[in-house]
Structures are given as C-alpha cells and as structure tokens.
Write a structure and sequence with these properties.
By secondary structure, the protein is of the alpha+beta class. It is built from five helices and seven strands.
Length: about 190
C-alpha cells in the first residue's frame, strides 16, 4: 500500500512537470524539465514494481524492462532505436533499486541523446551479469562514438548523477568505446538488507 501511494504521488509530480513543459517556450527549460521528469519516473518505476508484488525487493531485469518501456513510450515513439535486455536477474533492495533505476535512466537517456539523437536507428543493450553478490550492469549502444575530448573527469550533469549514485552503491562506473559500441559499465555489490 505504501509503495502504491508513493508511486501515485510521484505520478502527480510528473504530471505537474508535464504541465510546466507544455507552458514553456524555452527549449533549454523543456530539456531540463524532461530530464527531471525522467528521474521522477525512474523512481516511480521502482515503487510500481514494489506495489505490484508487495515486496521489499525488485528484480533488476524487470526494472530495466520497465524503464525502457517508459522511455520508448515517452521520447522514442516512432524511432528506429531498438532495446534489448539480456543476462542474469537478481533482486535488489528498495534503496539499491532506486539508485540503479536512476543510473539506468541516465544511461539510457545519455545513449539516446548522444548516441543517436532523436531521428536515428540503432540498438541499445542492457546486460546484467551476477556472480554471487557482485552485479555488473552494462548499457551499450551502437550509435556515435564518444567524442575525442571525452573525459570521465569532466562529465555532464547526467554522468555526475551516475558517478554519485555509483559511489553511494559503493560501486564503480566507467564509460568507453569498445568494438564499435559505446559501453557504460556499473559494478556494485548487492545488499538485500538495506
């Protein structure tokens, strides 16, 4: 019941952001509000999954699939970008699921915005590998390569959020070009007790 209420409250906040976006005449404001909307919906996805099963844990693959569905419906209608979720599944605590949802949201939006733009075709793969309590998560795209001047030391806001959340998970985050794909990699230890 609590997760259902939280999800509904987050949906109301999302609706307010959408109204504000509709009133805005400034592309930069629209973009910032859209980014905030995505972050709120990522958290709402966690609570949506928790309210369905009335559990304190969320399946990582279900979470990834839910976020991709929201992204496809909200910003990718009619695009040629295809998503694939593959690999292992594992349960995450509410706290870790929320952090991972925000990270996934940022990485998926980053891949769409910088890898493809809104009018290109391509693939985004989300791959999960679990070894006991170690979780490795890759978000890869076959769009544009990282810029020549890309530096993990000077990330934009989205990757600053990812780095901060990776540290909160006591994990690591890297991003590089690999075999024609741009690959973002998050590694952390799963803790069910949080």
């Amino acid at each position: 019941e609590m997760h259902h209420r939280v999800k509904n409250n987050l949906q109301q906040v999302a609706s307010l952001l959408r109204l504000q976006m509709n009133q805005s005449q400034d592309h930069h404001v629209d973009e910032a509000l859209g980014d905030s909307l995505g972050r709120i919906l990522a958290i709402a996805s966690v609570h949506d999954l928790l309210s369905r099963d009335d559990l304190d844990h969320v399946g990582l693959r279900s979470l990834a699939e839910n976020l991709i569905q929201h992204t496809s419906q909200s910003i990718l209608r009619g695009s040629g970008i295809r998503f694939q979720v593959q690999g292992d599944d594992t349960s995450l605590s509410t706290s870790q699921a929320t952090q991972v949802a925000l990270i996934l949201n940022e990485l998926i939006l980053n891949a769409v915005e910088h890898g493809f733009g809104m009018d290109q075709t391509g693939q985004i793969h989300v791959t999960v590998e679990v070894n006991e309590t170690q979780v490795d998560l890759w978000v890869s795209n076959d769009g544009h390569r990282l810029p020549e001047n890309y530096s993990e030391q000077e990330p934009g806001l989205g990757l600053q959020i990812v780095n901060s959340l990776a540290r909160a998970l006591r994990g690591t985050f890297t991003m590089k070009d690999e075999l024609g794909w741009t690959v973002a990699h998050l590694s952390f230890t799963r803790t069910l007790g949080e």
